[in-house]
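Reference record
================
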Amino acid sequence: MKTILVPCDFSKAARQAVEFAKEIALVSPGEIKVLHVVEPEYLYGNGMAGQPYVFNDPVLPISVFIQDAEHEFENMKTALGDATVKITLVVERGPLIETVLNVAERENADLIVMSSTGAKGLREFFIGSNSERIVRRAPIPVFVTHQTQHVNDIRDIIVPTSMDLTENEFLTEVKKLQAFFGAILHVLYINNYPMSLVHDQQATASLQSYANFYNLERYTLNVRRGANLEKGILDFASKMPGSIIAMSTHGYKGFEHLLKGSVAEGVVNHTTGTVFTYANPQN
């Protein structure tokens, strides 16, 4: 990885994401851009329901936020210790999601690493967590962490699949990930038999054909029963502590996203582990 972008609000979770990015950059090697986004405040209740107005009175100059961010940044760098990896701070003002994506493009980032605390209830249904929305729209790979994650601890990568044979780019990224971590792939198919009318034995045979098609190495094949794909993936991952989940995203937008959603986004929001996502351009 040449450039890793880490959105950071300097919370404990965000600092853990920076530390994970630093470990990746040490091995890859690469540099880290820590992005601190100052979001505009919105004022509602102006007589026009649902119409946000940027609250400009008063608005502190961006220099104040830069000064505060630089102070937090230096403290974080000191806590990280090893100065081998180049880590620089970028401070931008704007809507969080758009700013992260714009800066990723401007800085030619190869990877986004970010933390997530998830979203619940109506917010999850209509909006989703920030990490979900970035995963949905990012054209580059994204790592989402929910707790402390160390590179040397990753030895197992769970790869949920529908056995789609048009995921060449995604599986290429998965192989790179496997080589980077020296990990075993655990290819997972959630079989919703009897609704699918496919017996587990048939599903296992199809899964083997899938692995052969993509020339996978050092892998296990796993078929699990379950009516809900997301729950099936999370249940499987819960029995494999220390593993990460690698998934391709569909990139649904608008009403289509509301109807179909994305299993990857749901996993990102509800898992307690680390998820790697890749926007397969063929999806």
